[in-house]
Amino acid sequence: MITLLADGHEEKIDGLVVPHGVPILGWERKPHGWCRGDACIPSFRAVAAETEDGVDLVRFAELLGRQAVADLDEGVVVVGEPAAPALGRAPEFGPLAGLRGTKVALVFWASWCGCRYDLPAWEALHRELGGYGFSVVSVSLDRDPQDAREWLADVTHPAVIDADGRIAELYNVINVPTVVWIDEEGRIARPQDTMTATDTFRSMNGLSSERATAALRRWVIDGDAGTALRELRAPTGDERLARLHGRLAAWLFRDDRRAAGERHLARAAELAPHDLAIRRGLMPLNGVDPFGEAYFDLRQELEDSGVAIYRPLPDWHEEAPR
């Protein structure tokens, strides 16, 4: 048996070749092809994944624009999210579907980041600007939900814990704090941006929360997003693949298979060395202090390589250190 991790679910399958007639990832075989709702993959394309014995799960995922990583030694396969069909629109998840008609600041944070201390300030902005048709939605990148919950005890804004990393994958988030602005029609008003709501760690990140929150108020009240960019930054193929190895590593760490987890974590770091959401975010599951020496060694590694730790858009931020 193999464990399949896909679409936020975990299930057991007999192998990577799925018998004919069995639905795959929510798709069903019809006479004219594989269909899910009104969407269909025609038979002439589907044949690339079909064999005499069944349908190759990994090849089928690729037909859907989804990457997959299998570790047969550990008996697990993970399937990633579909590539974004339109980078100018916000991928929907959880509370976003109910916030159409409202401007949203999508705030990515984690308990392993000092940005956890910004949550009360984000909550204050949520309450202050709510009357203008605005909402904060916070997304914790903690792999252990319990680590995030104590910081969410007093918030009233919609809050989600992205324990399997799927939302970070959808929004191509590589570090926290990262904020995305979404307009009333679900369009990207400002893409992934390093943004703070307080100056608690300004000496480290060089960012002005005063400028950032003033710009946010202008956008909410006056409609000025302050940037010509209206699309999410697209991930590379290696970045997408790294997230799958990171998801596998997290699952293996939780199952107390540390050696295998470290192997997939190392592969993720090789593919996307700059992705701190993976490399730092998995430290707690691996028994490593995310505020300790390992994190500062990682910072030094990236700085020596010329990789920016914080990646703000340049128009209303001060220059961030590299």
From TrEMBL:
InterPro entries: AhpC/TSA, Thioredoxin-like_sf, Thioredoxin_domain, Thioredoxin_ResA/DsbE_sf. It comes from the Bacteria. SUPFAM superfamilies: Thioredoxin-like (SSF52833). Residues 84-218 form the Thioredoxin domain. GO terms for molecular function: antioxidant activity; oxidoreductase activity. PANTHER family: PROTEIN DIPZ, THIOL:DISULFIDE INTERCHANGE PROTEIN DSBE. This is Thioredoxin domain-containing protein.
